[in-house]
Prior knowledge:
Blueprint: E1 14-15, E2 24-31, E3 40-42, E4 44-48, E5 51-52, E6 58-62, E7 67-69, E8 81-86, E9 94-99, E10 109-112, H1 117-120, E11 125-131, E12 134-140, H2 151-159, E13 163-168, E14 199-203, H3 204-218, H4 230-233, E15 247-251, E16 265-270, E17 276-285, H5 305-311, E18 323-330, E19 334-338, E20 342-348
Parallel strand pairs: 14-15
Antiparallel strand pairs: 1-20, 2-3, 2-15, 2-20, 4-5, 4-19, 6-7, 6-13, 8-9, 9-10, 11-12, 12-13, 14-18, 16-17, 16-20, 17-18
Amino acid sequence: MQRNIKAVSSAVMGDVREEAQPAIEVSKLFVYPIKSCAGTEITSASFTRFGFEYDRQWMLLDVAKHKALTAREISKMVRIFPSIQRDDTAPDEGKLVVSFPDDPSTPSFAIPLNPPAEELATWEKISDVTLWWDKVDGYVVPAAEGADASPSEILSAHLGRQCLLLMKGPKQRVVPDTDASLLSYDGGPDTRFADGYPFMLLSSASLADAEQHIRLVASSAADAVPGMDAEAWKTKSLPASRFRPNIVVRAVGGREMRGFEEDDWVEISVGEEQEVRLLLPQRCTRCQLPNIDPETGIKDAAIPYKVLSKYRRVDKRDKYSPCLGMNVVPVNSEGTISVGDRVRVVKAQRKHNLLEGDA
């Protein structure tokens, strides 16, 4: 059910004048169908209150621990490649085809994107899987008719860990630090198997800032970081894909954004014809998952985590974790975001949730 969108109080967060803003646009979009596996860069995507269509709709369950299995434990998960193959004429809307290009001995498999209700009713459902602070639910994806092995058996053999491939069930997940009264839909924000929020956004300016800091550390013996391959990181790039964002933005038209400018954003609008509004309730705190190179599946011993930790431990909610990017909740219950869409900062607040003493 839709309701009128409530305005954010400017007494708490300041309006941002149009002329005071750099021209900003969406430069990249990503979806990650299976949590911790390879993402797909796209040019346009529809979304609901849960995030982009099919984003983190599936996840692996570590059978022994009864919790989410991620690349934090098995880094080569980032080299498992799910591909969305839509077929609007099919009852299941098409297939998610999963392949293993680094391991020719592992067969690819296909699962339904959106199984009909009568089919889903026959799948085993698990309701108490641990994902961070949540207990989440999911349906165990069964073997296709005539298949030699189930998706879970194929993945378990590939990873050397007994796991189950789950599709998200209907149980709501509570999204923290978001005022539900600001949203255009009832029930509050929700998400599938993402760590905590429907979207994650970062700017190319912040990526460039992080990369510059890494190269400065690599070139300075005085700032040496234990475990860093300094020679390699003097020239090595830091792509957005390491941080697994859904939305990347950049300044255009000769204007510039400062690094981590998005830290101050509280609300933005996206697009011209149909205005999408997004809330940015908190920064994205970082673990060591971005140390994994998405091109190889190999985890770096130090970078970027140890360099980010030198200067980006800035959020009072978690003063020990570095921050890069912003967690995002859609105000609209549905819409579309495309590369090239204009981004406008509606509300901003300097020093929002910053640690005392930080600029």
